[in-house]
Design a protein that fits this description.
Layout (H helix, E strand, L loop, with lengths): L6 H18 L4 H15 L5 H13 L4 H41 L5 H29 L3 H16 L3 H18 L17 H24 L3 H14 L8 H10 L6 H11 L9 H8 L10 H24 L3 H4 L3 H30 L3 H15 L5 H15 L2
Length: about 400
């Protein structure tokens, strides 16, 4: 007879399972959800197929990194709060560590080969984002109403620059979705049972709102760069609908326009983030590292900045997940909630489309050779179906050939 592991054993089991996934899960959030299903539904049988599908639906509804939220919930289901933290750490840290090492080493790269690789990584970002826009547009804007919402979002972020434009686009999209996207509501929902009390959900919701409102006020009242960084990354993580790629324009508005990170460093790091497994949100660890003296702490500027940015960008999504778990089954039956998210997701496509032009295209495509390399990467992703890490490796090598 199989015996259930003790609580400590379950936490170790969760950590080991997610560490393996953190080391091998290439391909982005949709691929991550496929890895999770194979490992935890088919092989380990932690939950049923229908329960897993319901959990995925919940995390796709919320802002934040969907695959990391699903992993956090799976750890919570198996090992309680400590299991949830173990799942997040094991899935996140491998790619975060690699990107921090890349950031620390990139500053010492001065030769033509190194510059070519960095140039190729910037071009890679064009192919990756273009592929994301194309795929998301097909699935999230299948009709005239949602295509119109996406177009309105493009105009919004063009006319209203910075984070305010992103927030305005998502808000307008959500309101338009409630008015225009009520058709085809799902009638069958599956109950989801996770160990989160109503009290814990309330505290998590209060913490989410308090930080979202309080951090900007503290950053405004204090000259502390650390508070400003906490506010920037927390706000970026709190306002991301649609997955990891959408965080690109939010982070660009926060760290490039503020002068903390140069446009070249930003795009080089974003390209490198495609070559590592795990969640794309670990790009924040790279940004925290290259900020240099923007933040200081007991671990030194680069490492402290990386840890701070990493925790703050993931925190809002995880707090929201805990906040809604006790109420999700009732809420997701509402037609209005489903319509709202259809509109918000359509707006996400517009935001990402605008980001494809600026800063991605304008910073990387400086001539016909860069265009040809980016088009090659796009076709390798969309037609030949190569994994993202392979395309990154090929285009980084191509960057050596085309660099002046």
């Amino acid at each position: 007879m199989n015996q259930e592991p003790r609580p400590a054993g379950r936490i170790r089991e969760v950590f080991h399972a997610f560490l393996l996934l953190g080391l091998t899960s290439f391909g982005g959030p949709i691929a991550h959800l496929g890895y999770f299903r194979t490992e935890f539904v088919e092989r380990r049988r932690w939950l049923t197929e229908r329960a897993y599908a319901d959990l995925v639906a919940l995390c796709q509804f919320l802002p934040g990194p969907a695959s990391s939220q699903v992993g956090f919930a799976l750890g919570l289901l198996r090992g309680g709060p400590w299991g949830a933290l173990a799942a997040w750490a094991a899935f996140t840290l491998p790619s975060a560590i690699v990107l921090v090492l890349f950031a620390l080493g990139a500053a010492m790269l001065d030769g033509p080969v190194s510059q070519g690789i960095i140039h190729g990584l910037k071009v890679t970002a064009v192919a990756i984002v273009a592929h994301a826009v194309w795929g998301m547009a097909k699935s999230l804007c299948p009709d005239r109403q949602r295509a119109g919402i996406a177009l309105a979002a493009v105009f919004t972020v063009v006319l209203v620059s910075g984070p305010l434009g992103q927030v305005a686009a998502i808000t307008i999209g959500a309101l338009a979705g409630m008015a225009l996207c009520r058709a085809h509501a799902e009638t069958e929902v599956q109950p989801l049972s996770l160990p989160v009390s109503a009290r814990a959900g309330q505290l998590a919701g209060i913490a989410f709102v308090a930080l979202l409102i309080g951090l900007p006020l503290l950053a405004w009242a204090s000259p502390s760069a650390t508070l400003a960084v906490m506010d920037a990354f927390y706000r970026a993580g709190a306002l991301v609908f649609g997955g990891g790629h959408v965080v690109l324009p939010l982070l660009e508005a926060e760290v490039v326009q503020s002068g903390w990170v140069s446009p070249d460093d930003f795009l080089a790091g974003y390209g490198a983030a495609q070559a590592v497994p795990g969640p794309l949100f670990t790009f924040a660890a790279y940004l925290g590292s290259v900020m240099g003296g923007a933040v200081t702490g007991p671990l030194g500027g680069s490492l402290f900045g990386a840890a701070l940015a990493l925790v703050m960008i993931f925190l809002p999504g995880l707090l929201l997940l805990v906040a809604v778990l006790p109420h999700w089954n009732r809420f997701r039956r509402w037609d209005s909630a489903q319509a709202l998210m259809r509109g918000a997701n359509a707006a996400v496509v517009g935001i990402l489309g605008a980001a494809l032009y600026h800063p991605v295209w304008t910073s990387a495509i400086i001539g016909p050779r860069e265009f040809a390399l980016a088009l090659t990467g796009f076709l390798l992703l969309s037609v030949w179906k190569l994994p993202a890490w392979a395309v990154v490796a090929l285009l980084a090598g191509g960057g050596i050939l085309i660099v002046p």
